[in-house]
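Backbones bend. Our protein:
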Amino acid sequence: MLREAIYHRSCNNYAYAYDENTLHMMVRCKKNEAKHVSLLYGDPYAFIDSKWDFSKADMVKTGTDAMFDYWKIAVNPHFRRLRYAFEFTSFNNCETFVYTEKGFFDQPPTDDVAYYFCFPFLNKIDVFSPPEWVKNTVWYQIFPDRFANGDVSINPPHTRPWASEDPNRDNFFGGDFQGIMYKVDYLSDLGITGIYFTPIFKAHSNYKYDTIDYMEIDPQFGDKHTFKRLIETCHEHGIKVMLDAVFNHSGYFFDKFQDVVKHGANSSFVNWFHIHEFPLILEPIPNYETFGFVGNMPKLNTENAEVKEYLLKIGRYWVEEFDIDGWRLDVANEVDHQFWREFRQEVKKCKPDIYILGEIWHDSITWLQGDQFDAVMNYPFTDAALSFFAKDSIHVEEFANKIQNVYHMYPQNINEVAFNLLGSHDTPRVLTMCKNNTSKVKMLFTFLLSYIGTPCIYYGDEIGMLGDQDPGCRACMEWNEEKQDQELLNYVKKLITLRKTIPAMGHLGKFDIVEANPATNLLIYTKSHQTQTIWFLMNNSNEELTVPLPHDAPLTNLINSETVQHFVTLSQYEVMILGE
């Protein structure tokens, strides 16, 4: 075996407390080299006749990506502390050795536990404990100006008639809180149990990521009284509400930045921002730090004590006064870790089960240590799913490798609340990416709503709306049922119902890839819980496929309730969900 490929570290996704009694251990090795892996483990203080007393347990290979196999096990140390190592047996039993923190040995060392990996103590306070309710939540992202106009009396100046023109960076269509309240029954009927709003605070733009006043709702959406009624209406329908906080930067017309614009270096707020020199220059590149190089989005200095207290007050206020259920944090990776640690402490004091979600597009393990975020937007999942199902830029084996890598990137208790999405206000719409192929969209929604984590649907994707990259993806919601794809809508409803009613399909189900055949682009995976297993068959090709079933017993197509046996025929781009 290639020993250089074997890897473990006593932290992060390789060794962690799943709950107050259980440790999860994972080790990595080169693909297809290990026939068997065991965990050797014991209490660091347990010696018999001067020899360390340890136990041995079989590990399970939980996945394979392009280069590595991943082996995992759950153990319950009696005294909540552990020393451990891994015993590898190669194929053909030609090689057996022990992998420890100090290297490789032919036999397990027993004279001293210092050779071994160490999990010093399972302290309850260190267990990553995200909100339990998130695991069962199906989210729906709403861009407020474009969802529904319920009160024309508060339309901003120059509001266009609903859907009368294509969306752009400057036009307004009058979407508001009252309109959302009128459509809560639609969301409830769809099966939605959480709404994620893009920013609602007073701002200059239609997208509201250029905040003017963090303490005030933008008047085009309504007032605080209306917002409180919206929260209450959502809660009455079993729907949680998550707001978008932009703490990385403010808008150009934020009063503190305007003071700097007016008074320059003499402003009492000059240290609220990262300003290199005066006078301020916006173009072509600002001489102060911003989001990207966008001059109307000056970056806030979250290391400044006044800025920090101001933003922490915002975090507390909307939880205490309006009982929101979550904060989505924009450009979260560019804000210092210490600020997020304090932010978590403050908002969790107000509401211990509030969901804290960071917008990060890359490996985010440093923000997911239990002291900052509960989850991040799972864009590695998004990239893999869209590359395979929508864009056809990778074949099924590459997709399986990518998803297995995503699956093993974080601890299980993080995966269970990961925010999985296919599209958002920042990306082209799903149907557009699928080149108007609704069958591909069905495969994407099936994978989204059966995968581990908490899924999110971008408004209108469930009815087949089209739209290119921002701003094209921000069109007005189509409420004319004759222009909606009702078949797709009913399919998504069915998937959400299955997720809610079948434990194996929901967050309790264990995910396994059974087949990823590059010759046919056939994907088969299972979700299993206790004695129940569900098979997902996806033919991501333009050829009809005949697929033998996993066993001879009859299976039920969970979408149309038909019984199948022995084999099934999948049309091009067809998905089938089969249960016992």
User: Anything to note?
Assistant: The mean pLDDT is 96. The CA atoms of residues 181 and 299 lie 34 Å apart.
